[in-house]
Amino acid sequence: MNEKNTKVSVVKSASEKLPLADYAEILLDSCVESEVLKEIPFVSTGVATIKMFLQFKEGKFKRKVEAFVEAVGDMSSEEWDAFSVSLEREGKRENFINELLEIIEKVSSEEKAKIIGGIFRRLVKEEIEYGVFEDQVNFTNDMLILHIFNFMHGFHNPYTLEESLGDVLVPYRMAKRKIEIAKKNVNALSVGGEQYIKTSYEVTSIGFAYLATLHQVFKDKIDPQNLYVANAPYKPAVF
After folding, report:
1. Distance (Å, whole) CA 99 – CA 49
2. Strand pairing partners for 176?
3. What does the pLDDT read at residue 5?
4. What is the pLDDT of residues 207-228, one digit of tens each?
5. Phi, psi for residue 185 in degrees, rounded to 5
6. pTM higher than 0.85
């Protein structure tokens, strides 16, 4: 039996008798030195996690997990305990690790995996609720990384929003579009100005909540005067 089959066999048997914290340790020990994923509380496992194990050593998935772990950073045991309680309350404790690993697997780049890590960090620290975690994961998966970075750096600039970014954000409810009739002077001789349709955009609370995540993750890349820090968590909007 080769090394891969041996480890798969260990993982399969572990799924029947080990708590997932130990199971994740088998999964990650040879690849990630950080203790972050070993501390995630959960109580059962399934095929999805075995699939992750098989893919982990292929390289790309390993790098995405490492980017995720880097963004999560250090957590106290008290924070992990509180997170475990919140998962139980949300009815997510049984399947959370499988869902999280599948999220990391599906994400298209290391940059996005790092953002997912930042979203997860905010969830554990109770800065956002589970529904918001899901929203932000969906934003990250759906949007082009170019648009995410444009938002991260240009949210404060109305011209950036009006050029194209605003139209990208509106479908995700991260911005509101305002259309109105305005006037402009075509030349110095014009009287009263010429009417035109003006389109402007305003970042919503949903957008600012995602922005807070992005600025936590990429704090070292943000101009300090434009760094956004969330004052309070938001709840998913109802439409």
Report:
1. 9
2. 202
3. 47
4. 999 999 999 999 998 888 888 8
5. -85, 120
6. no
Token pair of 231 as six digits: 């004052």
Nearest CA to 11 out of 53, 69, 58 is that of 53
Query: Which residues sit opposite 197 in a β-bridge?
Result: 181
Secondary structure (H, E, C), the chain: CCHHHHHHHHHHHHHHHCCHHHHHHHHHCCCCCCCCHHHCCCCCCCHHHHHHHHHHCCCHHHHHHHHHHHHHCCCCHHHHHHHHHHHHHHCCCCCHHHHHHHHHHHCCCHHHHHHHHHHHHHHHCCCCCHHHHHHHHHHHHHCCHHHHHHHHHHCCCHHHHHHHHHHHHHHHCCEEEEEEEEEECCCCCCCCCEEEEEEEEEECHHHHHHHHHHHHHCHHHCCHHHCCCCCCCCCCCCC
Residue 188 has pLDDT above 90, yes or no: no
Joined together, the tokens standing for residue 239 give: 């439409």
Residue the block writes with tokens 């509101």: 176
Sequence-distant (6+) residues with CB within 8 A of 16 are none
pLDDT in tens, 10-48: 444 444 444 444 444 444 543 444 556 666 655 344 445
CA distance 99 to 112: 16
Which residues on adjacent β-strands are paired with residue 200? 178
